Amino acid sequence: MKRKIFWLGVVLLCLCGAGSFLFAGKEKPAEEQFITIHWAQWAPADYLEKLSEGFTAETGIRVVVEQTPWETFVQKYNTEMIARSDAWDIIVGDSQDIGNMAVNGHYVELTDWIKDHGVDKTFTPASLTYFAEYPKGAGKYFAVPCEGDGLAWAYRKDLFEDPRNRALFKDKYGYELGVPKSWDMLKDIAEFFHDPDRGFYGIAIYGDNGYDSLAMFAEQVIWSFGGELGDYSTYKVDGLLNSAGAIAGIKYYSELFKYVPPGFGDAFYVKCNDTFTAGIVPMSCNYLAFFPALANEATNPYAADTDYFACPPQKGPDGKTRQYAALGGQGASVVTYSKKQDLAFKWLEWFIKEDTQMEWAKLGGYTCHAKVLASNEFLNATPYNPTFKVTMEIFKDWWACPEYDVLLRTFSETIAGYVVGGKGTADEALNKCTQQWESIFKEAGYYD
Amino acid sequence: MRRRPKENQGLNIETHYRSVKDKTLMRLFILPTLVLLISINVFPLVWSLFLSFANYTAKMANVWGKNPEMIGVANFHRILTDPEMWVKFITTAKYVIMSVVGEMIIGFGLALLLQLNFKGKGIITTLLILPMTMSPVIVGLMWRLFYEPNWGMFNFLLGLGRIDWISDPARNLYSIVIADVWMWTPFVMLLSLAGLSAVPKYLYEAAEIDRASWWFKFTRITLPMIYPILMLALIFRTIEAFKIFDLPMGITGRGAMAPPLLAMHLYNVSFVTWNTSYGSSIGYIMLIMVLAITLIFVKYLNKAKQ
Question: At what angle do helices A163-173 and A183-193 cross, to 10 degrees?
């Protein structure tokens, strides 16, 4: 019996082998052409899928936009790239990850392609630097700016323009209540509105320290107060990250954090938007990509009374005034291991066209195309587009070297304890972070 | 020319032939499972052991001598001499003790109560078992909503005001312990119930005849009889609690303000900052600790059986 089973198995295997051999030579039925783009799970990814229907209509190539929740987005594509996976043809990856992807050869270098197609002339220079270039200033590009984004503010016009609030504010602070003209004024406004007994709080800002949210808010106040994260070309940190300006910035963040609603130690974009739409804060900081929900009356009962502003300027301890916003957004890169690079490049060629970029902007995507960005059509398309334009002129980004994730984790661990947990001082936190960062850079060989 | 099989050489050729075929068949059937087991179980174990003695990040390209670079026991030395790692060891130990003790006491107590006859016993038992049947990630996310300081049910039901159970490091370890006890108490209860129902009734009847007190029966009959089962529950729960990951991930996330539990740290080191070799070393230290704890418990379990 067993012998029969064995021989039956052998015969079946032989038949399968012979079958596949016979059919291998025959012409396969025409397969549908498609490319897969990987991005985070959010509204812009839906817009991109919708936008790409135009590409499909033109070329017959279907575009699948695969979305991964933000919490695991970066890890997922890093894991796939380590495994040299061809699951995706294009990755719309985080700006700070560009160094890691470029150094490890996961992204195709696009320098020649960008020059040949004039992307360096049609897209804003800052967006190319932060979304596409590595090392910064080297003129080597690995992405096409896809979703420009940055931190900005939404505020309740009705509360800011309320005559009673205005009078009370002027009595207390000696100047008019209005859109903040400085970070100091922003803190005064937060303090003015903060009334926990009434269930109303001063501000909604990031407190989550799992990925980059706390770091992104922290870096913009560090820059605005005159500090730096370090020197991106020499990797020098001491004297920059723990400078008087940086310390003033982090101290400011900690003071501002006193006016958030309870339980904001894990607040990221969802919590900031939810708090704002619940009507318990007068202003909220978030990435511009999350503002469509605030402008929509179906998701925000205060949509008609909501307006927007860019991060304000600030005079630092050195007396100089600076204005910065933290960069968000991503660039689109062709995956080295993709077997459909030709189709991926076709899509990129179509995506960088002015018409496509205008359509992208109309759908809700944040274009980095200079001409589209400056057009009245774009500026008038949504109530927050003018804020986006200003933000695109003042943004800066985190470290983009392959070690950015360790730097991010170290920064969050040292700063969150002070800002969110209220432990220690700004000097202690930044000095500890400076030491740790320098040892990370030393270990990576940047000082050799 | 075809050779005829030799006959009568002190061996039954037919039996020999068939037995060889049986073995071949057996090996062929086992082979796929063996290959699968080695590739997804044994190889990672050996590879991670190798990596724990190296400096290696999976994020960068493999260059022998550089990535991985052999560094001996440096990773283990760093782990054992880092004060922050000891905070993680102590926090994990605290977590294991609090959650396992809570589960054992409440679980066993519930099992004793369920031994009584009362109306609705069946449905209550079923309802009590429900938390255990849920996915830990879902339980974590559900408790996160309960703990939400502004509108969550937890503060509201206990009349605690707007206390932050999620991101406040002074409390968030306890919030995970509460959720863990809620979820895994039914497991201890179920095992205890099985043990209690296996205690021979005649022992209690004999004690009744001797007019033994409830306490005497509990300490001299019930506890000794179900001791091995309780030890089993203790072993299972301790191992699980030691490597807890999904619940804290769901409740507090992996942020810097989350409780410094070993498994969470292992995840952050290995998959957030991609320090693969250091993560492997932490993994091996955890494995050794779990094995040591299990061996101690098994020793007691064997004693109890005797």
Answer: 120
> Nearest-CA distance from A116 to chain B in Å?
30
- Structural domain including A214 reads 151-326+401-444
Count of domains observed in chain A: 2
Q: How far apart are CA A247 and CA A78, in angstroms?
A: 33
User: Using CA atoms, how far apart are residues B251 and B179, in angstroms rounded to an integer?
Assistant: 9
Rounded CA separation B305/B301 (Å)? 6
Residues A429, A381 within the same domain? no
Q: Is A444 on the interface with B (CB under 8 A)?
A: no
Q: What pLDDT, on a 0 to 100 scale, did the predictor assign at position B305?
A: 73
Q: Which helix (H) or strand (E) holds A264?
A: none
Instruction: Answer yes or no: do A242 and A347 share one domain.
Output: no
* Secondary structure element (H or E) that encloses residue B298, with its range: helix B276-305
pLDDT digits (tens, 9 = 90+) for B192-201: 999 999 999 9
Q: Is B164 near chain A, with CB under 8 Å? A: yes
Q: Mapped to the 3 state alphabet, what secondary structure does A389-418 carry?
A: HHHHHHEECCCCCCCHHHHHHHHHHHHHHH
Among the partner residues B24, B28, B150, nearest to A263 by beta-carbon distance: B150
pLDDT at res. A22: 55
Q: How far is residue A24's CA from residue A16's CA, in Å, rounded to a whole number? A: 12
State the ipTM, two decimals.
0.82
Report the residue of chain B nearest A263, measured CA to CA. Answer: B164
Tokens 């809620």 belong to B182
What are B162-179's pLDDT values in tens digits? 899 999 999 999 999 999
Query: Are residue A184 and residue A76 in the same domain, yes or no?
Result: no
Residue A323's SS3 state is coil
Is the same domain home to A123 and A46? yes
The predicted pLDDT at position B229 comes to 93
Taking residues B15-33, report their average pLDDT: 79
> What pLDDT is attached to residue A75?
87
Point out the residue among A71, A280, A421 whose CB comes nearest to the CB of B169.
A421
Q: How far apart are CA B286 and CA B263, in angstroms?
A: 9
Instruction: Tell me the two tokens of residue A360.
Output: 């992208």
DSSP string over A66-135: EEE-HHHHHHHHHHHHHTT--S-SEEEEEGGGHHHHHHTT-B---HHHHHHTTHHHHB-HHHHHHHHBSS
Give the residues across from A37 on adjacent strands: A65, A90
A2 is a domain residue: no
Please check whether residue B59 is in contact with residue B274, taking contact to mean a CB–CB distance below 8 angstroms. Answer: yes
- pTM (predicted TM-score): 0.85
Q: Between B223-242 and B172-197, two packed helices, what is the crossing angle to 10 degrees? A: 150
Of A75, A209, A262, the CB nearest to B256: A209
What token pair was written down for B168?
Answer: 């406040």
Instruction: Evaluate the omega torsion of the peptide bond into residue B68 and state whether it is cis, within 30 degrees of 0.
Output: yes
Domains observed in chain B: 13-70 (no CATH), 78-305 (1.10.3720.10)
B245 vs B242: CA distance, rounded Å: 9
Indicate whether A337 and A354 sit together in one domain.
yes
